[in-house]
Design brief:
This protein is an alpha+beta fold. The protein is 39% helix and 34% strand. The protein contains four helices and eight strands; from the N terminus they run ααββαββββββα. A four-stranded antiparallel sheet has the order 3-4-5-6, with helices on one face. The protein has a two-stranded antiparallel ribbon with strand order 1-2. It has a two-stranded antiparallel sheet with strand order 7-8. The longest helix has 21 residues. It is globular, with a radius of gyration of 21 Å.
Length: 151
């Protein structure tokens, strides 16, 4: 009887998660649409078909998140990532943006992701004024811990 209850609880858990994943609003048609919307130029470079509209969203995010950006120079499409499982599904584009930071001589690069479903951009990067560069907080903490433990 106990084994049956455990099996029933596990089945209910997986059924609930499967229903939630299906209700996430992201359909397989959305993945197909993204894959079919890529363009390849004469140099063999691939870009999303609506890159001009995406660039406006990306530039706005960078200017809002980093007020010390003097100008955005280049926005370069880097990759498209998909993930599909019985419990979750998502996709996003990754862009590399070249920016000029006030008071910094060299151009810097920040990675930004774009969700084609919500049409919103985001970045995990923060600006470090001491190092005059962008960083991901968790990665910088791990590097600091490793260098401290190696000494």
């Amino acid at each position: 009887m106990i084994k049956f209850k455990i099996l029933l609880a596990i089945s209910a858990f997986f059924l609930t998660n499967s229903i939630q994943a299906q209700q996430s609003g992201l359909s397989l048609d959305s993945f197909i649409e993204q894959h079919q919307s890529f363009e390849e130029n004469e140099n063999g470079e691939i870009t999303p078909i609506n890159v001009i509209e995406i660039n406006k969203v990306l530039k706005f995010l960078v200017e809002q998140k980093f007020p010390n950006v003097a100008r955005t120079r280049n926005i370069i499409w880097d990759s498209y990532t998909t993930f599909v499982s019985p419990f979750d599904k998502y996709h996003f584009h990754t862009f590399i943006i070249q920016v000029k930071i006030e008071g910094v001589d060299r151009y810097k690069y920040v990675e930004v992701t774009y969700d084609p479903e919500t049409k919103k951009a985001d970045t995990k990067f923060l600006w470090n004024p001491d190092k005059e560069d962008f960083f991901v907080p968790e990665v910088e903490e791990e590097i600091s811990e490793e260098s401290t433990s190696n000494n």
